[in-house]
Amino acid sequence: MSEGKPAPYRQIVLFLGAFALLKILIHVCTLYLGPYGYFRDEFYYFDCAANLSWGYVDNPPLAPFILAIVRATLGDSILAIRLPAILAGGGTVFMAGLIAAELGGGRFAQGLACLSVIAAPVFLGMSSFFSMNPIDYLLWTIAAYVLVRIINTDNARLWLWFGLVAGLGLQNKLSMAFFGGLVAAGLLLTPQRKYYRDKHLWVGGLIAFLIFLPNIFWQVKYGWPTLEFMHDTRLYKNIPEPLPKFLVNQFLFIGPLGAPVWIAGLLYAFFSKPGRKYRIFGYVYIGLIAAFYASNGKPYYVAPIYPAMLALGAVCLEQITVRRRWPRYALPALIVVTGVLLSPHAMPVLSPQGMIKLQDAMSFRAPQQERAHAGVLPQHIGDRLGWDEFIAMMNNAYHQLDPADRERCSILVSNYGEAGAINLFGPKLGLPHAVSGYMSYYLWGPGDMDGTCVLAYWPDRKTLDDVFEQVTEVAKFTHPYVMERQNNRPLYLCRNLKMPMEQAWPKFKRYW
Questions:
Q1: Same domain? 200 vs 51
Q2: Which contiguous run of DSSP H or E holds residue 387?
Q3: Which residue among 191, 199, 240, 312 sits deepest, i.e. has the most Cβ atoms within 10 Å of its Cβ?
Q4: Residues 344, 219: contact at Cβ < 8 Å?
Q5: How far apart are CA 380 and CA 398, in angstroms?
Q6: What's residue 6's pLDDT?
Q7: Which parts of the chain register pLDDT below 50?
Q8: What is the spatial distance between Cα 69 and Cα 311, in angstroms, rounded to a whole number?
Q9: How far is CA 267 from CA 175, 184, 187, 281, 407, in A?
Q10: Total domains in the fold of the chain
């Protein structure tokens, strides 16, 4: 319910656009602070973009396709490759405000929704590097807007647009299947169940399925590797969390002062007469919490629904503060203050030394969500460091080999960050293409590696001893700030396979 006469659409767009621009400027202006470089996952996306396919072990093809376009047009600079993430972040802010406007919210509600998204640590962090996540957030928020429009206008044709957005979302990240499935289930619990009798709902579902179908064909061709990845991740990668901690992390990822907003949105959907027709969002939210907790998912997997929940909460708070205006000044101010205080934990705005001092002073650090992500810095910050030193070690070891060895030497590494870094920076140094058994690199195969001479950066020497006749340590990588899984690890020179490559290669496979 808006306050007074609704603003013209052009004014709404300009108002929300200002918040989206603020979000974009935050990330552009902090892009080169500190000694930070590419993030580990970005190296993987580089190689995915160089090997375009309808699928990858751990993600569908949309994000690599976008990055391939960016690289072909803008190059490989950090600004260029992070531009899609930054713009998607700005788009998510805009769409959150637009949802608030569609819900009947006035300027306060629209601004509060936008501001809550801008200040949320999870959205600050995810917009600071390229991955499928910021694209995921934008597509979920567009789909949520379409759903609100369907409820408000009773225009069943909009299910076709919902299907289109959901299909694109599925080609970006499989979490969209949770959103679509829970929307389908939520319809049964609300008066919107009437749409099951409308052909447009079913055609929209068919559109989403057809868009996603190429990835299904790819999965069949390669033996459903993504299902294997999800199984291994659940068992070996993600840290199991008790339900209370899982819920506490929701407060941390959205911000402790953003919490009253999304909680108000949840209450608004379930207990408010004006919000009753949007109850489906409450069911979707609870369903997401239950589904991701039960499947040992990371707490941040719930993040894509929060722009819609923050919009609902902003409208609710606008309605209950009509007579008491002071909360309208206090809450946004507190959200901004806590957002600034928590921002160094979300994105690299301090030096490594400064970040460590801040963690100690606050007695707080960003939650660790994976078993291997231990280190003096949070993983999403520490994994932007050490790549120059790593490449220098590999380059030095390779060029110390005899010329005859260099001609036949291959490089084998343990994960996509190491492989992608070598494949991005190595050609200028004369390094050979790196291979790995990690994620999609396993499907891409060993390439030219014949096993006669291999520089192997591998955490488990036993595997190397089982596969090669001779294994010799030639260097060790050490860095004060990288993750423990990569620190103080030897580089080995391996010679002569004990078995044919088709038997050796599966021993390096790892999908978690």
A1: yes
A2: helix 387-399
A3: 312
A4: no
A5: 29
A6: 64
A7: 1-2
A8: 33
A9: 25, 21, 18, 11, 67
A10: 2
45 and 133 fall within a common domain: yes
Cβ–Cβ under 8 Å, residues 384 and 421: no
- What distance lies between CA 442 and its chain's CA centroid? 22
Contact 243, 235 (CB under 8 A): no
Write phi, then psi, for 194 (nearest 5 degrees): -60, -25
96: burial class by Cβ within 10 Å (0-12, 13-18, 19+)? Answer: buried
Q: Centre a 10 Å sphere on the Cβ of residue 352 and count the other Cβ atoms it contains.
A: 19
The token pair at 118 is 């801008």
Longest dimension (CA), the chain: 82
Write down the pLDDT at residue 1.
40
* DSSP-based three-state secondary structure for 389: helix
Q: Please tell me the number of Cα atoms within 13 Å of 211 on its side-chain side.
A: 26
pLDDT for res 122: 97
Containing structural domain, residue 218 = 9-344
Is the distance from CB of 131 to CB of 417 less than 8 angstroms? no
Joined together, the tokens standing for residue 314 give 């902003």
* SS3 state of residue 476: strand
Can you name the residues that pair with 491 across neighbouring β-strands?
475
Distance CA 11, CA 276 (A): 28
Q: What is the pTM of this model?
A: 0.95
What CA–CA distance (Å, rounded) separates 335 from 177?
Answer: 31
- Domain assignment of residue 294, yes or no: yes
Decide: 86 and 24 in contact? Cβ < 8 Å.
yes
| Contact between 332 and 111 (Cβ < 8 Å) | yes
Among residues 302, 327, 343, the alpha carbon closest in space to that of 109 is found at: 327
Which residues lie across from 413 on neighbouring strands? 436, 457
Q: What CA–CA distance (Å, rounded) separates 457 from 386? A: 15
The H-or-E segment that residue 494 falls in is strand 489-497
Buried b or exposed e, range 106-137, using 16+ CB within 10 angstroms: bbbbbbbbbbbbbbbbbbbbbbbbbbbbbbbb
User: What DSSP line would sit under 207-223, residue for residue?
Assistant: HHHHHHHHHHHHHHHTT
- Judgement on whether residues 217 and 310 belong to the same structural domain of the protein: yes
Same domain, 308 and 430: no
Rounded Cα distance between 454 and 411, Å, is 6
DSSP line for 414-475:
SSHHHHHHHHHHGGGGTPPPEEESBTHHHHH--TT--SSSEEEE-S-HHHHHHHEEEEEEEE
